[in-house]
Every structure is written in structure tokens, then in C-alpha cells.
Design a protein that fits this description.
globular; 321 residues; mainly alpha; two-stranded antiparallel sheet
Length: 321
């Protein structure tokens, strides 16, 4: 028995660094990047640079919040980039009726895509990766049918949303922070949040307990679609152009990376909103660092792939704690 206790103690010692990495690795990585940039990146501490980073990270963070809900339910949403493309096409089509109408049209399109995803998953029984992959392809195709090429979408109110600020904080960043608070409250303090986590932990057990599994999953993917559409609207406002060909490309990769690196397990049953925020900032800062040091964009994709592999390796054995 003494020997078994020694083995258990040794095992605990070996797993302690991995457990620390799972819980705090994203913050450590963020700290390392910050120190590196302060030391070696010119004008990194300028107010203009912080403003730029805040504006650029906002769409990724908003999409990542929806992705965190999907992953927390033991699913995934690969269609978020295509929803952004569909959103920008709808903005181009409806902006003539006013920016509010364009926003409503864009969000409605995202919700519709999310409901199709949720129906395929919750009602038909299609695997989330397959269902959302189909919408990933079809959604961008529909966006290109609506707006086949780049179009200017110049509007004073839209431009103000994309480039304006309140007390020095850009509007997109303020919207993203408000959504972080709302989603965190939903996950931690509401019945819907508890049901979502229970479904992600064990869908059969959730059904046996009488939880509304189908309704919750429909809501999860509808919310993910709505958030992706809002991100597309904000990105369009910043660019003052509708470009369904490229807008949202690889956004699913960035969102999944932010969520997984932030500590939300792919096995579901847990959502870490604070980690997701840190993960989104980490991805943005990593991209900005490579750009500022004149490395080609392809290195950004390679770096993200490495980060994902490291995060998944660290998550092994975490399960659904």
C-alpha cells in the first residue's frame, strides 16, 4: 500500500504542470507576448496601437463567445465564417433602408443559419461537425449569390460605429465587452446555462432528466449564428465595404483556437468565458506580432495550428471536469 501511495504521489507530481498549463497557460502565453512586444515592437505601448488591437479583436471575440456555447454543448460550429460573409452581403443589400434595418437583416440571416444547424443536429441527429460543415460551404455560396463582388457600403452611422469611440474605447470593443458580460451571466446564473452544461456533460443523461435538449441546442446554434452575424456587421462597418469572398475566412479556426486555448474542453460540459476572452486576445496579439515583425501571413496560420495542438495536448485527460 505504501508503494501504491508513492506511485500516486509521483503521478500527481507529473500531472501538476499539465493541470497548471490547462488552467493558466493562456494567461502565461499572453504575458510572454506582451513582454516580448513591449521589449521589441516599436510603438507597441501607444494608445493608437491599443485602439487598433481592440477594434480588430472584437469580431473574433464575439464569434468565439458563440463558439464557446456550441463547444460547451459538446458540439462545434464551423459555419461562423460563412455567416459573417452572409451578414456582409445582407448589409450591402439592406443598407439603403437604414443601418438598423441592415443590422436586423444580417442578424436574422445568422439566426436562420443557426436554426438550420440546430435542427440538423438536435432533430435529425447529424453530427455537429458535418451539419455545420454543410452550412459553412452553403452559407458562403449564398453570400456570393447575393453579392458576387466587393461593394462599397458607405454610410455615416455605419462609419461611426466602425471607427467611433466612447471615452477612447472603440464601439466594437464596447459591444464585445458587453456581450462577454451577458454570455458569462447566461452560462453561470441562468437555467439555460445550467441546462447547456448538463447537455454537454452527457446528452443521454440530460434527456433522462427531462431537460429540453432539442430546444437548448436550437438556441445555442441560433445564438452562435446571431453573434457571427453581428461580428460580420461590425467588420463591414470598420471596412466600409462588403466583401463576402474574403470576410470571415478562417474565422472558425480563430474562434475554435480562442475557445480551446482558453480552457473550454472539446468534450463539452464546461465553458470558460474569461479564458475565451484571453484566448481571443492571444490570437490577435500573436497575429499582430508576426505582422509587425514582417513575417508573411502564412506564418500566422502555422502559429495558430501550433497553439491548437499545444492546447489539445494539454487538455488530454481533462475530460468534463
Amino acid at each position: 500500500m505504501a508503494e501504491a501511495a508513492v506511485h500516486r504521489g509521483a503521478g500527481a507530481d507529473r500531472t501538476a504542470p499539465t493541470a497548471w498549463l490547462r488552467s493558466y497557460g493562456v494567461y502565461a502565453g499572453l504575458a510572454v507576448l506582451l513582454v516580448f512586444n513591449v521589449a521589441f515592437t516599436e510603438h507597441f505601448l501607444s494608445a493608437e496601437n491599443f485602439r487598433t488591437q481592440a477594434v480588430q479583436v472584437a469580431p473574433t471575440l464575439i464569434v468565439a463567445l458563440g463558439m464557446a456555447l456550441a463547444i460547451g454543448s459538446e458540439g462545434i460550429d464551423l459555419s461562423v465564417g460563412s455567416v459573417m460573409a452572409l451578414s456582409t452581403s445582407l448589409v450591402a443589400l439592406y443598407l439603403g433602408y437604414g443601418p438598423v434595418t441592415a443590422l436586423l437583416a444580417a442578424v436574422a440571416g445568422g439566426v436562420l443559419v443557426g436554426l438550420v444547424n440546430g435542427s440538423l443536429i438536435a432533430v435529425v441527429g447529424v453530427q455537429p461537425i458535418v451539419a455545420t460543415l454543410a452550412l459553412m460551404v452553403g452559407g458562403r455560396g449564398l453570400a456570393l449569390v447575393l453579392v458576387p463582388q466587393l461593394e462599397d457600403v458607405r454610410n455615416p452611422a455605419l462609419r461611426s460605429l466602425g471607427s467611433g469611440d466612447l471615452l477612447g474605447i472603440p464601439y466594437p470593443a464596447l459591444i464585445a465587452l458587453a456581450l462577454v458580460v451577458l454570455v458569462a451571466f447566461t452560462v453561470r446564473r441562468t437555467t439555460f446555462g445550467r441546462q447547456l452544461l448538463a447537455i454537454g456533460d452527457s446528452r443521454p443523461a440530460a434527456r433522462l432528466a427531462g431537460l429540453p435538449v432539442r430546444r437548448v441546442l436550437l438556441c445555442v446554434y441560433a445564438v452562435s449564428g446571431a453573434l457571427a452575424a453581428l461580428a460580420g456587421y461590425l467588420a463591414t462597418a470598420r471596412l466600409q465595404a462588403s466583401d463576402p469572398t474574403s470576410l470571415g475566412t478562417l474565422m472558425e479556426l480563430s474562434a475554435i483556437t480562442a475557445v480551446v486555448v482558453g480552457g473550454t474542453p472539446l468534450s463539452g460540459g464546461k465553458v470558460r468565458i474569461s479564458g475565451t476572452v484571453a484566448g481571443a486576445v492571444l490570437i490577435q496579439l500573436l497575429t499582430a506580432t508576426l505582422v509587425k515583425h514582417d513575417l508573411p501571413p502564412s506564418w500566422t496560420q502555422i502559429a495558430q495550428a501550433v497553439v491548437i495542438v499545444l492546447a489539445v495536448c494539454a487538455a488530454r485527460g481533462r475530460g468534463k471536469q
